[in-house]
Protein: 2-isopropylmalate synthase
Amino acid sequence: MTNQLIIFDTTMRDGEQSPGASMSRDEKVRIGRQLERLRVDVIEAGFAAASDGDFEAVRAVAEAVRESTVCSLARAIERDIRRAGEAIKPAARGRIHTFIATSSIHMEKKLRMTPEQVIENAVAAVKLARQYTDDVEFSAEDAIRSDEDFLCRVFDAVIKAGATTLNVPDTVGYSIPALLGQRISNLIARVPNSDKVIWSTHCHNDLGMAVANSLAAVMGGARQVECTINGLGERAGNAALEEIVMAVRTRQDVFQCDTRIDATQIVPASKLVSQITGYPVQPNKAIVGANAFAHESGIHQDGVLKHRETYEIMRAEDVGWNANRLTLGKLSGRNAFKSKLQDLGIEIASDEALNAAFTRFKTLADKKREIFDEDLYALMSGEAPDAVERFKLIYSKVHSETGEVPLATLTLTVDGKEQRGESSGSGPVDATFKAIEQVANSGTELLLYSVNAITTGTDAQGEVTVRLSKNDRVVNGQGSDCDIVVASAQAYLNALNKLHSKPETAHPQL
Ligand SMILES: [Zn+2]
Structure:
């Protein structure tokens, strides 16, 4: 057994299935480049057959990323596999990840197939995928609730058909560590030629055990773990990449393996994904939470100052905290700005785009003395060249005074035409949203409103996420500004603009 643990990141496929977390093509390319810097082994960039937009996004990541394998998901049906095969064609290394359900409940109720038909379909899918690439992964969806004898038959058949990675997912987050570890080691012991393939797992966090289950799979012999940045993913999420990587690295004495990950890129990756998807990271989240390395207790602080290892098992800087915090200031020029964006992996399409971004940067630098990496990410994520901008904020004024009812007045452009809205509300943000609705009349429901300070200090930019739903569709809008009422208005309008762009297509779960 090798001592390398393959890290398979599915932030852009499984993570994208969190409500409202869908990513545009350009956003996927930015995340893809960051995952490459993080030295992720395999990047699952999407489900190419879902729509033309999904196909284009996978293809764009395959073109942009050189160092990591780029993968597309495909159901075990011909069209899906052909679309996946086409989408990964430009990749330096491309993988097709095909799957079919193997639990009785899924076979009977969802697929309406007999076990024999499921095996037939799995084999045909793997054989077809092998015509596009030598790197084919097969997943037995809902493997944890599948009969072990049947799983052995399926895996035996797909190894013969040419699968090179076999994934044992806990699709519904039902397993517990001891059982998942046992399941993997049983399969490795029972399936013929199991040593010729890489065994993998993919765990969901419905019972809060995604990371623990994944690590138990590693103990059982799995050498690939599927995971996501910040644990983003369907329902309660997926196994958090940063936790898996740091657990294995910190406890190599136990796991006897390690990853290729450059851990100093973990925090930048976490921030980028949080900013793009609008999913904030809880402060007490392991590794990437704002408090993960903060020692409040005096006894702890004293210990850490005298000898760090008294209370710290990892160093904050090893996972990318405090690296390059201070970035630019008011006096920074256009070239410094440009090269900093390049360092951060932010692509600028044209000179005009650079000029526009530089103007926004100067405006921000006037309000805020020091500009940090996080500010630049926020500044640039406001620019989505492929988003339709139906609504745009031109002007806003909010009156808020003790004992008075807050009042918001604003001017928007709607399809280029100026319109004015005015409303009172229970607070300045409420008044602003009502004034926007007076113009937009969108019929949406507000599901979530959250404000986060991007950096420390009272002059920090506020980053606002607004989640809206309409007719079962959910979108997240983001806005950032030193004025949180303006940031709120921008986030709301960003969400409305997203609702106006092309509807998303249904994606399969795994
Ligand atoms: Zn999943």
